[in-house]
């Protein structure tokens, strides 16, 4: 397929068929996030949300890091009001947009994922974390706290006690530990990471797009305490009216793979 590349400064967006890949492209700075990168990421997410993409993949450029978080040189000069009103609010807005994207999202994490970089991965639905990766939220050692949803999303994934080990005691996790604790979806060797990504993305993109996206919203709503007996009835009613369900039933009876079109 033809790959369409859009360069947004230090964020590159590649659209290859029904898969959108967002690359943090600042390897000399270990993909540290700047306000401009957050704005570019936000634009990329809005574009993906308005498209027919079925999966979004997030990754970092260079061999050393997925993302080391916020650029310290950019936020350390901010006043307390600027930190509260601009920096923290901007990160939450972008990361919440990523978390609420209707399409499934996958972070391919290698090298270092620290601070806001780990928080970015936590906002994705799936995290493929290589065995030699190093993950952590070291903010208290700098004199601050996680600021882009890390305390909430980390606690949801690993529980309160382990979240305190990572944040308060600044415990750094490798890939196998991240998988054991429920933070990583898969933990391949570095040389097998691309294959693991391809397998997961193919599973996600070959399901009915409407059903996959409905199911994602149902699961997220259930995590917030919404009753499944109400939302599943609504979701099932919507799915019943789609061409995808009719195609799925036909394919089942004809003993073939379905061809979904998201309608």
What report would you give on this structure?
The chain is α/β, with parallel strands linked by helices. It folds into two domains: 3-205, 2-enoyl-CoA Hydratase, Chain A, domain 1; 209-254, no CATH class. It has helices at 35-49, 72-75, 80-100, 116-122, 150-158, 160-167, 175-180, 193-205, 209-223, 228-240, 243-254; strands at residues 3-8, 11-16, 19-24, 55-60, 65-67, 105-109, 112-114, 126-129, 134-136, 173-174. The strands form two sheets. Strands 1-2-3-4-6-8 form a six-stranded mixed sheet, with helices on both faces. It has a four-stranded mixed sheet with strand order 5-7-9-10. Helix 5 packs across helix 6 (160-167) and helix 9 runs antiparallel to helix 10 (228-240). The longest helix has 21 residues, at 80-100. The protein is globular, with a radius of gyration of 19 Å. The model is unreliable at 1-7 (pLDDT under 50).
Name of the CATH class of the largest domain: Alpha Beta
What share of the residues does DSSP label as strand, in percent? 15-25%
Q: Domains counted in the coordinates: how many?
A: 2
Major β-sheet profile: 6 strands, mixed
How far apart are the first and last residues' alpha carbons, in Å?
Answer: 22 Å
Low-confidence stretches: 1-7
Assigned CATH superfamily of the largest domain: 2-enoyl-CoA Hydratase, Chain A, domain 1
The averaged pLDDT comes out at: 89
Overall shape: globular
Percent of residues in helices comes to 40-55%
Structural class: alpha/beta
Strand order of the largest sheet: 1-2-3-4-6-8
CATH architecture of the largest domain, by name, is: Alpha-Beta Complex
Radius of gyration: 19 Å
CATH fold type of the largest domain: 2-enoyl-CoA Hydratase, Chain A, domain 1
Tally the beta strands. 10
